[in-house]
Each structure stands twice: as C-alpha cells, then as structure tokens.
Amino acid sequence: MAVRIVLFTGKGGVGKTTSAAGTATLAARSGQRTLVLSTDAAHSLGDAFGLEVVGSEPFEVATNLWVHQVDAQRRFERSWGEIQGYLMSVLDAAGVDPITAEELTVIPGAEEVLALLELRNHAVSGTWDVIIVDCAPTAETLRLLALPEALGWYMTRVFGVQRRVVKALRPVLTRAAGVPMPEDSVFDAVERLHRDLEQVQQILSEKESTVRLVLTPESVVVAEARRSLTTLSLYGYRVDGVIANRVFPEAKGDPWRQGWVASQKAVLGEVRQSFADLPIWRSDYRAGEPVGIDALAGLAEAAYDGVDPLAVPTGEGPMTIVRTGTGAVLNIALPFAQKQDVDLARHGDELVVTVGSYRRLLSLPAALRRHTVSAARVEDGSLQVRFRFEQEEQP
C-alpha cells in the first residue's frame, strides 16, 4: 500500500504548522506510523508540540509519531557537495577567494529543495504509513513544487548534449581556457540529483498524495488561496480540502467581537463559494494557544468533526484526456482562471501553458504527440485543448 502524503500550505501566519501537527497526531492515534516533516526553513514543529526536537533524524514525540526537521547543512553536503567542489575549483581558477566562492556556490532555496529530497527518501523507505509535510508559505511552496519538472526539462534537453561535448573537448577546453572541466563524477552527481527530484514529482503526483490549503477568514488570504489552487492544478497536484483556521465563535454582548464574527461570516461565505467542490473544515479560535499533543489532537478532532482526515479523494486528477471521434480533448483543471490569464503554445512534443506568472512545460502523453492542436478554450475552470489526429501519409 502506498504511503499517504498530505502537504499543508498557505499564507504565512495562518496556522499551517498547527494544522499539520494536529492532523499528524490524529493519524498516529489511529495506529498509523506517522512522520511529520518540515520543509520550512523556519522550523517550528518542535514549538507546536511543546518539545525540543533534537538531532538530524526523525525524533519520536509520541506513540507512532515522529518529527523530522531536516538538517539542511548535512543534506546539502550529501547531495550537492561534489557539484559544489567543482564550482569552487572554477571560481578558484578565476581568482575568487575561497570564502566568497563557497557562498556563491550555495544554490538559492537549497534548504527547501533538500527537504524535498528527504521527503523522497522517507516515501520510498517503507517505514511510514502517513507522511504529513509542513510546507513553507505559499509562494515558496509553489516554486518548490514546480522545480522538479523544470529541472527535468533542462536535464533531458540540455544536459545530455553538454556532457557529450565536454567529454569530447575536455583536453582542448582545459588547455585553452585554463579552467578545469567537469569530470564524469560531477555529471553523475547532477544526474542523481535530477533523478531524485524527478521521483519526488512522481510520488507527489500519485492519488495518495494531496495538498491541503490552510487559510484564515480574511479577504487577502482567501484571494491567495484561490490563486494557489489554480497554480497547484496547473502543475498537476491534487488539492483535497481547505482548513479555515482561527474562526471567531459567536459573542453576545461584545460589539467588537460581534463585528469580527460578522466580517468573518461574510468571508467564509466566499470560501464556500470559491471552494465548493472541496471539503472545508473549520477550526475555531481558542482561548489558549494549542501547544502539545493533547491540545493539537483536540484542535484537529474539532476541525475534522468525525471525518477521516486521511481519506484518499476519489475522482480524476487535474489533467484528463477524453477520446473523440476525430482525436482527443485534453482537460487541465485551472480553477478561477479567466481566458485572458491563460496563454498556450506548442513546441514539438510539449505544450507550454502559462497562467499569470506561472508557466508549465507539459510533455504530451505519447498518445497525443501525433495529434495536431485544432482548438483551445478556457471554460468552467478548465483549459480544454482539442487535438485532431493526423493520418500518416500512405506510400
């Protein structure tokens, strides 16, 4: 049985960590071996459980429940060390001092990327029944989830050619440029990194892997959650529900709180309309901060209200193909997207889909590569691309 993976994301400060920790606690209490993993550089899982999480390996905080706050430096040295060593030798040949060279060869967003690799290791280990991921705030998470596919495009189209050229011309280039050319071990390290990230994407594209949006009843936060749903769907990730966090309970005789209750009710109405096809769980504002196993479990139990928080959603994913008499229609779910937001182009065996500031290079399934795009439209929250089958010419 595949491991159940749920990623929690949302705007900073909406309670992602608390929601992730509470859900993990319920999973553990149901008898499932559960890991809660943080991909946020500002780890706060230990604070949520009211414990000091020590060490660079999973730390047991309760029966069936482990927390892993990734040691980014250790993971960086394991995955990037050989590549960094080569880059530093190039900078050394160019006269850059070692300290500056080391700073220049640390990739931006390395901690989040390496946490994804740690997720991959845990997912394939067979150790866990459930993995809960406390993600970084929305924008960082979206960039992170787009990375494996973008890197895969570069690796398959550019890197292979580059490796063959360098291998053939290494002696000439080294003498001419005075700069060390990469050895095969460097290329092997990059390819390992690529394969691991590619497997991350495959794991997160399975039906057992979903994303859960956490929000508070504020118009700005809800607007960001809507954009997140659009972008996550663009990249093929399944969103399985929304947690509306920090909802004020009714307050009689307190005009100030009544004003907040009324304001939140209006926004919650927007949430129900915006995410009508998704479960919406409500978590009330509590008198005290939920810290510790029991408080987190109580918060999650109240929010899910008897519903299994780890049920695998049924139905099709964000991308489907429907056969027609003359070809096929490719449907890509893009909730809330308008026609003017979407741009579409085809380059060989790829579709280039742009929605706002996000772009996906979508490799077409083999069944569609010999088809010609005949029409496209955005309708009812979906990009519909119509393909017409081109008959091969007879000799």
Features:
4-stranded antiparallel beta sheet, alpha/beta, 395 residues, 8-stranded mixed beta sheet, single chain, globular
- Termini distance? 50 Å
Number of beta-strand segments: 15
Main sheet specs: 8 strands, mixed
Number of helices: 10
How are the strands of the largest sheet arranged?
3-4-2-5-1-6-7-8
What is the share of helical residues? 40-55%
Strand content: 15-25%
Rg is 24 Å
Mean pLDDT, all residues:
81
Unreliable stretches: none
Globular, elongated, flat, extended or rod-shaped: what is the shape? globular
> What structural category arises from helix and sheet content?
alpha/beta
Spell the H/E element sequence: EHEHEEHHHEHHEHEHEHEEEEEEE
Describe this structure in words.
The protein is an alpha/beta fold. The chain has helices spanning 16-29, 45-49, 72-93, 98-104, 110-125, 138-177, 184-205, 219-234, 255-274, 293-304; strands spanning 4-9, 34-38, 59-62, 65-69, 130-134, 209-215, 239-247, 280-284, 319-323, 327-333, 342-347, 350-355, 358-363, 371-379, 382-389. Strands 3-4-2-5-1-6-7-8 form an eight-stranded mixed sheet, with helices on both faces. Helix 1 packs across helix 10, helix 3 packs antiparallel against helix 7 (184-205) and helix 6 (138-177) runs antiparallel to helix 7.
Quick overview of this protein structure:
The termini are far apart. The protein has helices spanning 16-29, 45-49, 72-93, 98-104, 110-125, 138-177, 184-205, 219-234, 255-274, 293-304, and strands at residues 4-9, 34-38, 59-62, 65-69, 130-134, 209-215, 239-247, 280-284, 319-323, 327-333, 342-347, 350-355, 358-363, 371-379, 382-389.
